[in-house]
Amino acid sequence: MEESFGPFEASATSALVALPTESTIAPLPDPGRPEFDGKALRALLNGPHGDVKDKVWSICSRPEFAYQYDISISDYRRQVLGWLQALADEGLGALGTPAELAGAGDPGGFLAAFGTLGHHDLSLLTKFGVQFGLFVGAVQRLGTAKHHDLVTGALQLDPLGCFAMTETGHGSNVAGLETTATYIPSTGGYEIHTPNPLARKDYIGGAAEHATVAVVFAQLRMGDLGHGIHAFLVPIRTEHGEPASGVAIGDDGAKAGLNGVDNGHLTFDRVRVDGEALLNRFASVDGEGRYSSDITSPNRRFFTTLGTLVGGRVSVASGAVSVAESALTIALRYATRRRQFQTTPGPETSLIDYPSHRQRLLPRLAATYAYHFACAEAVAEYVGLESDAGDTGEARRVFEGRAAGLKAFATWHTMDTVQECREACGGQGYMAINRLGSMRDDVDVFTTFEGDNTVLAQLLAKSLLTEHHSSFEDLTPGRLLRYLRDRVSSFATTNLPVIGSVGGDRTDPEVAGLLLDRRRDLSLEKLAQRIQRRVTDGRDASEAFTEVQSHAVETARAATEAYVYAAMRRANVDDPALSEILDDVSVLYALWRVEEDLGWFLTHGLLTAGGAKAVRSSVATLCDELAPHARHLVDAFGIPDEVLAAPIAL
């Protein structure tokens, strides 16, 4: 099958159908010395856990970690399980676990390891995250001392666990889960039951073949009372690997990606577990069958339980950004060696020398840099909250909203970037051995696991609206109306002058940031006004918010992109030459985001027609100026050739 290049000669595509063992494109050119301190940039990107990243890369560079492209699902699952055991043997799974539980007590190191695995195989990353992030994390954070022996064993994959939250009928709506856990007074234990087909636990990583224990989220029932969602430890397999009594296990089979993960479904037929099965950090049932919790509000208790798992969203964002870094490294290296068409006598022109090619890849490289720094900042903030140093209720609430937005827009960015890189590499980008196709298929689900992106974006928007209120829905209509009026009034007094032209100031980071900040603030103002009108008309807060969901998502995008840009600007860069190049990268990101939303800026009067033209011109100019540095910028990610492993990039 040949690609169509219109009227051009078919021979022009000959390089695209080369056998993987024979290179028919020019050797990867020597990029020469960078105009900035490349080692300093590498150290800046590595952050405080460069040693952990180097260890992950070293392990994944071993011959036994080499990718296989023609492998059955069953063999792939066994391969990934073997890789997971190797990571456990090297102590990587224990990084985030406290020292008293046989861990290293380094949650930042754990998140760094997880993110770095995003450069390798995403089935392994997912399996790593399920075992050490979700299963171990849930037992550690939701359980108490009596559960912690399980953590110590699980760090060595004994047992292998899974995280059974999602059901066929409910995913994002965790409060609506239908699996039940009914208290049995005569034994002090619980009966776990799947009351209908939609309550089946579905898409559970590890359930199909490997896991022996599940953390099951279920509705706790005690007599006629329901106490909401709680987590329980439920054995799902015997020591011989057979389904436990009352547990039906199914295999979800082939998926669009991540086929090294054994996703499955679980159904419980009145499965009895003892009283110790309840993970009781936030709520307990005593020997007399009395339920108690230090968090008296059921709503707050529910969100506190889920809030302990917020690190998963930060880790998914970090892993996704690593995928974008790999894809861009492949595509931009290939762009320096692949030649196509002659514009002057002599050799054909390198892809990187075409403005259209630069403008499809370099803004996405700039965005990937910005998301890298934003994820690093979020990791540091999360570690601070976990250490209790900065863990106030307000700080955690703000962070949960920000993490939701970061996960949503980082994974959407990665999906867009990987597809663009695939197309930018033509037929070679479609070859399995060059990895872009598998990256795209594997990272696709990142947009919906750990929270559907559209739902997470709304969560951030609601967080931005509520500010100091613990729950948007908890506001009475009168309090909500007064709050929204105050909110709109504060915006009305904010100075938002029109930018007529940014051409002369295009490299000024303050101008670029101001554009994103204005969009964020005005979007939030408009969202508040829309809700205010509906509340004035008699709708309650929840109904009013539902009617403006699409505006909420765009508000979340504006807020996240402003945050991502500001996070990159906050990175500590001492070297003047490096600071200058990163200034250009950050401004390219900001202006590209403005360019992608020019209609909004023009409609809301924040740019004139001349200003819009200047933004587009500035984006093109910055792409041209950064093109000579593109190879150094992707090489600074530090991905070993054995891990990158795409022949077109080596």
Summarize the structure.
This protein is 51% helix and 9% strand. With 650 residues, it is of the alpha+beta class. Strand 2 and strand 3 form a beta hairpin.
What is the third-level CATH name, the topology of the largest domain? Butyryl-CoA Dehydrogenase, subunit A, domain 3
- Which residues form runs of ≥5 with pLDDT under 50? 1-24, 488-497
By CATH, the superfamily of the largest domain comes out as Butyryl-CoA Dehydrogenase, subunit A, domain 3
Helix content: 40-55%
Q: Identify the CATH architecture of the largest domain.
A: Up-down Bundle
Radius of gyration: 26 Å
> What is the distance, rounded to the nearest whole angstrom, between the alpha carbons of the first and last residues?
25 Å
What's the number of structural domains? Answer: 3
Mean pLDDT score: 89
Description of the structure:
The structure is a single chain. With 650 residues, the protein is an alpha+beta fold. It has three domains: 116 residues, Acyl-CoA dehydrogenase/oxidase, N-terminal domain (Butyryl-Coa Dehydrogenase, subunit A, domain 1), CATH 1.10.540; 136 residues, Butyryl-CoA Dehydrogenase, subunit A, domain 2 (Beta Barrel); 341 residues, Up-down Bundle (Butyryl-CoA Dehydrogenase, subunit A, domain 3), CATH 1.20.140.10. The chain has 22 helices and eleven strands. The strands form three sheets. Strands 1, 2, 3, 5, 6 and 9 form a six-stranded mixed sheet that branches. It has a three-stranded antiparallel sheet with strand order 4-8-7. Helix 9 crosses helix 18. The radius of gyration is 26 Å and the shape is globular. The chain starts with 37 loop residues before the first helix and ends in a 6-residue tail after the last helix. The N terminus is likely disordered.
